[in-house]
Amino acid sequence: MQFIERAELKKKPERGTELGFGRYFTDYMFTMRYTRGQGWHDARIEPNVPQSFDLATGIFHYAQGVFEGIKAFRREHGVAVFRPDENWARMNRSADRMCIPAFPTDVVEEGLGELLRIERDWIPTEAGTALYIRPVIVSTHPMLGVHASPEYLFFILLSPVGSYYAHGFAPTKLLVEDVYARAVPGGTGEAKCLGNYAASMKAGALAEAQGFDQTLWLDATEKKYVEEVGSMNIFFVIDGEVITPALVGSILPGITRKSCLQILRERGYRVSERRISIEEVAQAAREGQLDEMFGTGTAAVVSPVGLFRYRGVDYTPKNATGEITTKLYREITGVQCGSIPDTRGWIKLYE
Ligand SMILES: *Cc1c(COP(=O)(O)O)cnc(C)c1O
């Protein structure tokens, strides 16, 4: 793979720096281009420096683009990446929904491996930190007209990160949104496509202004059934049963969600993927039957929910940080950092 070296390396954040989330980026990135008639070509590692684009470029106008989020961890011998094959498969499914041609996963895997070997020293090692991998595809053809672009850029950025929420593994507060919708049936909710996040910002800003961490989204049609949190899938533990909304097309099929479901089933918990109304959750909370509530996602891993507000009323689970929430957090972060053996083949080790 072609490697273009940069003249001068960046200054890395010092040990102990509050990394936050997505604030620092490494020296290099992986890139690959697509041209209609030629396919994907010119995979390479190049300096991560500002790029210039014609302002007529498709991505600036119609958001024809998709992304992923993956985490990597430094090991004594190499770099451990959590379930990247799942991300590449999902990225190609998102791409298909957005009319973006499928990319060859073997080329991208090789590119990521090269990039990780070069950028190993950027990976933080303190507890709770990781290297966040952000693959993106954007349309690059400079022409107006709402049609699939004949040209794309695939790139992978690397960012050393701390915890997603400023308060770490502390309970979050969610505001149930019953006016705005994130995703509609037949829409793009199950694709990790750029526009979904732009569409969610208004409700997110209103929630934050009232002191909440994120929005808890309901279904767009009836505003009745719980969907997800916008960067996390949601789980409830009601009277011993672990419930997460079924993937109905408007919910992002999270890889952390899938991993948690597998762990819970292996351990013999009663687990359901089904429709669950916000009223059922509120009722359970009122009756003291809502044992725990948590969100799952690559960035936040497993994040306890300590409170949600629905139509002006605050509800709290019995345990702000429950037993199942804590177990799942420990199991997933343990497998990721290597303190728990990876018996399920979830770790891809790049040496
Ligand atoms: C990425 C994302 C998630 C979490 O998915 P993971 O694969 O677990 O990281 C959940 N909801 C939305 C809307 C997302 O974009």
Would you give an account of this structure?
This protein has 351 residues and is an alpha+beta fold. The chain has 2 domains: 2-162, D-amino Acid Aminotransferase, Chain A, domain 1 (2-Layer Sandwich), CATH 3.30.470.10; 172-337, D-amino Acid Aminotransferase, subunit A, domain 2 (D-amino Acid Aminotransferase, Chain A, domain 2, Alpha-Beta Barrel), CATH 3.20.10.10. 24% of the residues lie in helices and 30% in strands. The protein has 7 helices and 17 strands. The chain has helices spanning 58-62, 84-97, 105-118, 194-209, 255-266, 278-286, 323-337, and strands at 2-3, 28-35, 39-47, 65-67, 70-75, 78-82, 130-139, 151-161, 172-177, 214-217, 233-238, 241-245, 270-274, 290-297, 301-310, 313-315, 347-350. The strands form 2 sheets. Strands 1, 2, 3, 4, 5, 6, 7, 8 and 17 form a 9-stranded mixed beta sheet that branches. Strands 9, 10, 11, 12, 13, 14, 15 and 16 form an 8-stranded mixed beta sheet that branches. Strand 9 (172-177), helix 4 (194-209) and strand 10 form a beta-alpha-beta unit. The longest helix has 16 residues, at 194-209. The relative contact order is 0.14. Pyridoxal-5'-phosphate (PLP) is lined by residues 69, 192, 228, 230-233, 252, 254-257, 296-298.
